[in-house]
Amino acid sequence: MKRFFLLCAALLMSIPLGCATHPVARESNEVLLSKGLTLFKYGDYDEAQAKFEEVLKEDRNNPHAMNYLGTIYEKRGQYNEALEMYQRAADVRLPFVEEVFNEPRFDGMTITQVAEKNIERLRSIMLSKVVTDLESTRNELALLETTVKDSAGKKESARADEGAATKASEESVKALYEKAFYYLNNNDYERSLAGFLKVLETAPDNRLADNAEYWIGEIYYTKKDYQSALEKFRKVITDYSDGNKVPDAMLKLGYTYDKLNDKKDAAIILNKLVKKYPESDAAKKARERLAGR
């Protein structure tokens, strides 16, 4: 009997305890979009954003995902990011973009038409915000002037006035910048250029100065004034080396060299971009440009 139990124990120990594992298949874009839309409708924007971004990893031109990401950015008040996403959706030129958007509130419009409507609506909101900010700035400046006159000669009041002046100046520069950016989005390059130049003239050390320099370079590039564009992109890279626009400036500097048929310098700057900022969107575009040479 003892030998029988020992034999049974040996047999039990020989049975595998685990089971073969298989990799979990990735969910299809249709499933991801559906889940993202459900999360979006329930207000879980972070999780919805993750789903839509996963769709774009596999299908970078999916206008559904871009439209909803634009709406999420808009709800967070990130208007520039929202406008960029809507514009990408509107620019898609694939057969399926003529599909009718499956939501009653869009009244049978195509996906492209929905994106274009979102762009028009958001630009109106941004313009209204610029006007409101400008009016608010004027009121602050008027109040500041009155305060300065009433508190002249008092040391503590003078310090308070200085702080108020700094705040008003910051808001004023921000309003100028947003107005110039609005004109840029509406292809009004002359007004946009004048606005960004005004930002640099008014507050050359402001935190928005490097962005203003970059967009001036973009305007010159669009107007095919490549030498002027070259100078601006170089200035962003050298004078604002810690700024957020350096990778984009390096990319457009490479593009500008290409336009001037300087292929050698174009390749040098694009390779530097890939090496220094490998995870940036600009680096991805640089790799594509280098691969196509």
Which architecture of the domain at 188-291 per CATH?
A: Alpha Horseshoe
How much of the polypeptide forms β-strand, as a percent range?
Answer: under 5%
CATH class of the domain at 188-291: Mainly Alpha
Number of strands: 0
Overall average residue pLDDT:
81
Helix % is: over 70%
Number of helices: 13
> Structural class, please?
mainly alpha
CATH topology of the domain at 188-291: Serine Threonine Protein Phosphatase 5, Tetratricopeptide repeat
Shape: globular
**Element-by-element helix/strand order:** HHHHHHHHHHHHH
Question: How would you characterize the largest beta sheet?
Answer: none
What does this structure look like?
With 293 residues, the protein is mainly α. Among the domains are: 27-118, Serine Threonine Protein Phosphatase 5, Tetratricopeptide repeat (Alpha Horseshoe), CATH 1.25.40.10; 188-291, Serine Threonine Protein Phosphatase 5, Tetratricopeptide repeat. 74% of the residues lie in helices and 0% in strands. Helix 7 packs antiparallel against helix 8. It is globular, with a radius of gyration of 28 Å. The model is unreliable at 1-21 and 155-168 (pLDDT under 50).
